[in-house]
Every structure is written in structure tokens, then in C-alpha cells.
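Sequence and fold:
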Amino acid sequence: MEIQRDRGKRLVSINQANYIKKIAKSLGDALTYSTPIDTNVKFVKTGVADSEPSQIVQVPYREVIGTVMYAMTGIRPDIACAVNMLARFSQEPRLPHWLALTRIIRYLNGTTNHGIIFDGNSEEGLIAYSDADYGSCRDSRKSITGALIKYHVKQTHKSVKKSTQP
């Protein structure tokens, strides 16, 4: 992790640029994407919905899922949905699953400067975001729901005077 601090602006930023560059280097190309996953593609156990079943591929799928999951839990929550979706196919990954996983890495490679910024000047309180997708899993017909709840506490710095009396 790389941590940068700007005391004057009361900002702290964190990113994992070097870690992501190391992951992307393992792919051996410089291709990048602007989104982590193609939202028009629906993944199923046999590959992609509405297409012929594809063969199971012999690739280090679990290791790569773990690698991008580390980036996700550390600094990159923007890939959480895509990683979660692809992690479901770790038992028998197919070619479409592997290609989608490499797309996530190429997205990370194109956005190495993204990270998390902590702003000491913000006066926001409780903020909540949610999303749901009714019955979207083609294999189980289960719904997918996600939520993000953020609470920001405005800190005030008060000087404490020392008493000189016993």
C-alpha cells in the first residue's frame, strides 16, 4: 500500500499502484478496460448464458481470484461485485470466466491511480447506497443485493491546557 498525506488540505490517500502493476505484468500485455466487467454478459456454470457450454480451462483461476480479492478488500471496492460474481465459478472455471477475470486485471491496470481518499474537511454524516437485482442468477434464480453504508464523524481538535496547580 502506498499512503500519501497532505497535512495542509487534511487529506490522506491510499492506493495499491505497485501491487496492481505487478499483477498486470503477469498477463504480459498492456490492454486496459474502463469497466471491470461487461454488464451485458450473464455468467452461468457452463460459461455464458444463452450460448454453447464451454470447456473447463486449466488455469490458476483460484490464485488469481485471491490476488484480485486482496486488492478489492484493501483499497479497491469498485471491483467487489465483479470479483464476487466470478469467485462463484472457482470450482470449475470456464473460458468466459477466465476472460472476465483477466478483464478485471486489465481494468485495474488502467486505473492504478484509483484509491481511497480520507478527507478531514468533510461534514457528511450517514450516507447509504443500495442496489438489488431480482432473480438474476441464471443457475439458482437467486437475487443479488448489495449495500454500502458510510458514516463520517467530523472531528474537532481542541487544545488541552495543562493545569499548573497541584
